Amino acid sequence: MDLMKLSVLLPFGLWVHPSIHSLSLVRTVDSCLILACFSCRMMSDYKVDMINDGMQEFFVHFHGPKDSIYQGGVWKVRVELTEAYPYKSPSIGFTNKIYHPNVDEMSGSVCLDVINQTWSPMFDLVNIFEVFLPQLLLYPNPSDPLNGEAASLMMRDKNAYENKVKEYCERYAKPEDISPEEEEEEESDEELSDAEGYDSGDEAIMGHADP
């Protein structure tokens, strides 16, 4: 009998044979299903880039909340689903720079209790990108900082802090700052090929110089 007829169809063409009983495989299927549902629900508002054709690591293009000092900025946030998701929170981090007391400037790690400590399986990825991260940007917590400089500046001189946030948005959080790495690598390869072509042409010209 055709196995496809026995398969359980999942969103986006994912499927699993109904005879599968392995807990590890079931967990993998659950993660795939969750990610597929997430992509389906969020695709209209968010761009999602998969990593290495896998289903548990991906980038989400996240825009700063409206009517905030982060408005106009766009960040590529890396998301990694653990084997225990949704019972354990996903790992998230900003890949391009953001100036915020609760985000490490170098690593992009986020200090957010609801993700790091008080996560519940009742939450999902939509909550992270539609509620938790926007709230974090709107209401920073300088008393529990990952970026001590930003926290200190926020408490000492709010205007200077807001100007620094906007400066970072302008310098590091434009759409061109989060272009896919593959495109950048392709452009670099093309530039290198062009340069090699020019070198070869120059050598050919020099080789045919008049005596």
Automatic annotation (TrEMBL):
Keywords: ATP-binding, Nucleotide-binding, Transferase, Ubl conjugation pathway. InterPro entries: UBC, UBQ-conjugating_AS, UBQ-conjugating_enzyme/RWD. Pfam families: UQ_con. Residues 178-202 have a biased composition (Acidic residues). Residues 24-174 form the UBC core domain. It comes from the Eukaryota. Residues 172-211 are annotated as: Disordered. One of its GO terms (molecular function) is ATP binding. CDD domains: UBCc_UBE2H (cd23797). Gene3D superfamilies: Ubiquitin Conjugating Enzyme. PANTHER family: UBIQUITIN-CONJUGATING ENZYME E2. Belongs to the ubiquitin-conjugating enzyme family. This is E2 ubiquitin-conjugating enzyme.
